[in-house]
Design brief:
Structural class: alpha+beta
Mean pLDDT: 89
Number of strands: 9
Shape: globular
Radius of gyration: 19 Å
Helix content: 25-40%
Distance between the termini: 43 Å
Order of helices and strands: HHEEEEEHHHEEHHEEH
Strand content: 15-25%
Largest sheet: 5 strands, antiparallel
Number of helices: 8
Length: about 270
């Protein structure tokens, strides 16, 4: 099963013809994007629908002073620019987080394939809901959550999305991210991220060595961070972890509002 099939199968039940269609879409022009380079930059014209087939990418915006703000992580099966059917130019940049492989699909070919299948149109609608929900969640993360909850919620999201693709098991996954990458995604400094990482390690909620990340107790981390996967809109995925409604765990301690912006733990 290719990554687009694996992702869409979490939204709807794909029949044989849908799977054949998705396979055909991925047998197209491919591109390797080296780590730290861009697939496409803000302001450049859009010629293809781009899909991550292997590795990680990110959507990002550059600030006037050259700093980068990551606004989403792209995993295998993710459409980099589903707006290619309407937009003519990119309004943000897409870069590779580690080495990334992408399929380049002509917009008219992609459009015709989806028009022929009600299931694929439904899957795209779910995917659009998930992208919008993720942006709302990231806005909440940046605007209202203290540092520990920001990092914790992001790690829970990545774990959940990778588990849905079969790329995470037992709380463990491989990620090409660094503490600098997490800082760019959470609006924190790398020093602040390091403090939070040490705090989570001290609580027994995070093991991180090289590219290997393990969440020993994903449910506890989710409760502590306020993470609920509802916004990812995967009705056909039940990972066996993450409580379906955090209101059921009202007795679990959560970071007090007064801690927003403060570091926790030892450096």
């Amino acid at each position: 099963m290719n990554p687009l099939q694996a992702k869409f199968a979490r939204y709807v039940e794909l029949d044989f013809q849908d799977q054949v269609t998705l396979d055909a879409l991925l047998r197209t022009e491919a591109r390797l994007v080296p780590a730290g380079t861009d697939l496409i930059r803000e302001g450049e014209p859009i010629h293809f629908v781009k899909l991550v087939t292997e590795g990680w990418g990110c959507r990002y915006k550059l600030l006037e002073d050259g700093r980068r703000q990551i606004v989403a992580f792209l995993l295998p099966g993710d459409l980099c620019n589903p707006d290619a059917l309407a937009a003519e130019q990119m309004d943000h940049s897409i870069g590779a987080v580690g080495e990334m492989h992408c399929a380049l699909i002509a917009p008219d070919v992609f459009d015709r394939a989806c028009l022929r299948s009600r299931k694929l149109r439904q899957a795209l609608a779910f995917d659009a809901c998930a992208m919008l929900g993720t942006q709302r969640e990231w806005t909440l993360n940046l605007a209202a959550r203290p540092a520990l909850a920001r990092i914790g919620a992001l790690l829970c999201e990545l774990h959940y999305r990778l588990a849905a693709l079969g790329l995470a098991e037992g709380g463990r996954f491989v990620a090409p991210v660094t503490q600098i990458t997490l800082a760019e995604a959470t609006g924190l400094t790398s020093v602040h991220v390091n403090r939070v990482v040490q705090d989570l390690r001290g609580r027994g909620l995070l093991h991180w060595q090289g590219r290997s990340i393990t969440l020993p107790d994903p449910d506890h981390l989710a409760q502590l961070s306020g993470f609920n996967p509802r916004y990812l809109h995967m009705p056909r995925f039940t990972p066996g972890t993450f409580a379906p409604d955090r209101q059921l765990h009202a007795g679990t301690p959560t970071p007090p509002p007064g801690n927003a912006g403060k570091s926790t733990g030892a450096f």
